[in-house]
Amino acid sequence: MFIRLEPELEEKLDSISKETGRSKSHHARESIRQYLEDHEDYLKGIAALERHEPTIALEELERRLGAAAIARKSLPPAPLL
């Protein structure tokens, strides 16, 4: 696979690769993997809405989860591997 990146995006990719010591291919692969997972989740959500499945607001979910949700908010995001 070969992709062309805009110069600004190429510079950002170079920068993060140098900062992390990981290859540009690694970061591109992980970014694509994350995008595909997010897109799949989005499609599942749309399908659930089209089936008129029950929904819940984020605030309500956090209220129901209580302290567990509050504790998770204080944790830093998990690093990409």
Structural class: mainly alpha
Straight-line distance between termini: 21 Å
The overall pLDDT average reads 87
Give me the count of strands. Answer: 0
Radius of gyration: 18 Å
Figure out the total of helices: 4
User: Which shape, going by the Cα principal axes?
Assistant: flat
Structure description:
The chain is mainly α and 81 residues long. It has a domain at 22-73. The protein has four helices and no strands. It has helices at residues 7-20, 24-50, 58-65, 67-73. Helix 3 crosses helix 4. It is flat and about 45 Å long.
Give a short summary of the structure.
With 81 residues, the protein is mainly α. It contains four helices and no strands.
Topology:
Layout: H1 7-20, H2 24-50, H3 58-65, H4 67-73
Which terms summarize this structure?
81 residues, 0% strand, flat
